[in-house]
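JOB MANIFEST
job_type = single_chain_structure
chain_count = 1
residues = 244
[input]
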Amino acid sequence: MKRKLSSGLVLCASVLANAPLQAQTYDWATPSPYVGLDAQVRYMPFKENFGKNLFKKYSPQGNIYGGLRLHENFGVELGYELNKKKSKTTDVHQGDGQLGGVVNPDPDVETYISKVKIKGWHFDLVGYYPVNLYGECQTDLIASVGLGVKTLTADNDWSAYNGVPNTAAFRAAQYRSFKKRKTTFRLAAGVQQLVTENFGVRALVGWENTGRFKAIKSIQSPNGSSSISLKNTFQYSLGVYLTF
């Protein structure tokens, strides 16, 4: 993870450092607006004993965005990301960690159904490094740095004990849900290519410090031992955009 993050930082710095070299070739008075849609996969692991064994790590998500390319080498972008709430069924055995680092002391098997989702807005500063092909600038190396305002929701349902479904009343009493909003720091790097005069495709790898979502207590028991904690996450994107 550190190697990928370092590579993203180096590319971002390279793009911004080379921006003045292209400044004389673009008219600042005529910014280029664009809109786009990305199909994404988010890798979002939880910390050991704080949800790692209970929640899905990968989930598909979408990103809809709009931006202004203010200069050949600089732009701004606003978008909204939403991933699908993914469910995972886990058998917890004796000695396995549970929510909040509580170790299961029971020799029997407890079955849990857990779901997680993250969504929210993001604002990014985008750097471009045009790559000239056959005398035309149709390909850009891109890098971005920005902030996100994300809401994490998670649910944990103790559904069965030794393979026998628990009663509805017991499940309701033991049900745990979590919800928290945080501001995150974001980095991304990739490439985009104009296919026609106004239509293009882009591919990005992003990083987000969702590790700020830590020790989140359940809504049902805010002073109890149940809690979840995220690690930092990666996003892999492939999308299309239109320029105007």
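[summary]
Residues 2-243 form a domain with the Porin fold (CATH 2.40.160.20).
Confidence is low (pLDDT under 50) at residues 1-6, 8-13, 15-26.
exit_status = 0
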